[in-house]
Structures are given as structure tokens and as C-alpha cells.
Predict the structure.
Amino acid sequence: MKYDDTNIFARILRGELPAHKVYEDDTAIAFMDLMPQGTGHTLVLPRAPSRNLLDADPATFGPLMAVVQKIARATKEAFAADGVTVMQFNEPAAGQTVYHLHVHVLPRFEGVALKPHTGQMEKPEVLAANAEKIRAVLANS
Ligand code: 5GP
């Protein structure tokens, strides 16, 4: 299937829709997931358009994973997490719901299960406070 540049993440990348951003550079952007599966659930997207991993230019992955690592480390520290889960879905059968390549970064806590995927919307003030915690760690690293 072809990339559709009206998808919600393309609109966030163009600045047409708001997001609680924690990081951006020339290649990638990271912001809070609107329906987090856990505290600090962050999404990392390459700026380069692709529907998902299957149609992406392999040159995308190096810079993208460097940002995923940066966000994984920062979220683990920001929320004093015990570990980090990294997830990425391709096509509806695999759970993908937004069709611009993105990687989920989820701080994990011993004994705490993930909430359902695309479940409940988090309060904006909680997302803003969590984004601020991650930005503060990144600013000091
Ligand atoms: P996917 O299912 O495509 O891997 O993940 C899409 C993710 O984007 C879901 O975790 C969902 O909660 C999140 N999401 C959906 N719409 C929005 C939105 O408008 N803003 C943000 N920040 N996240 C969104």
C-alpha cells in the first residue's frame, strides 16, 4: 500500500496538529503517545515518509534506532523504570493503526502489566508533565 501523507503523524510532523514533543532532530521526532499503554509511553518517528518498516528505506533505521536508544535511556531514568519495552507494528493484522513508521518506547516496572493498545486517552496535563520529565533528563545528558 502507498504512503498517505494525511495520516495523523504526518500532520504532527508538519506542525498541523499538536503533540507533547520530547525530542527532535533532522532525522526523527519523539512525542508522548496519546493513549499510553503505561507511564511514559513515547513514540519515535523518522521524518522520512514510509508506511511502516516494510516499505522504509533501510538508511532510515540507523538514525532512527539511535533516537530510540536515546529515548529508551531517558524514559528509564525519568520514571525510574526497571526496564524498557520497544515495539513496532506493521499493517493492521500486526496491530498498526497509524501509517507512518513509528517505534513505541515503553518504560516498564516490575509487576506492572501494559494497558491495552490504543485504549484510553490520557489527560493532557499528565502527558505534558511526563514530557517535561523526559525533556529534563535529555537536557542533562
Ligand atoms: P500503532 O498501532 O500504529 O503502532 O500505534 C499508534 C499509536 O499512536 C497508538 O499507541 C496510539 O495510542 C497513538 N496515537 C493515535 N493517535 C494519536 C495522536 O493523535 N497523537 C498521539 N500522540 N498519539 C496517537
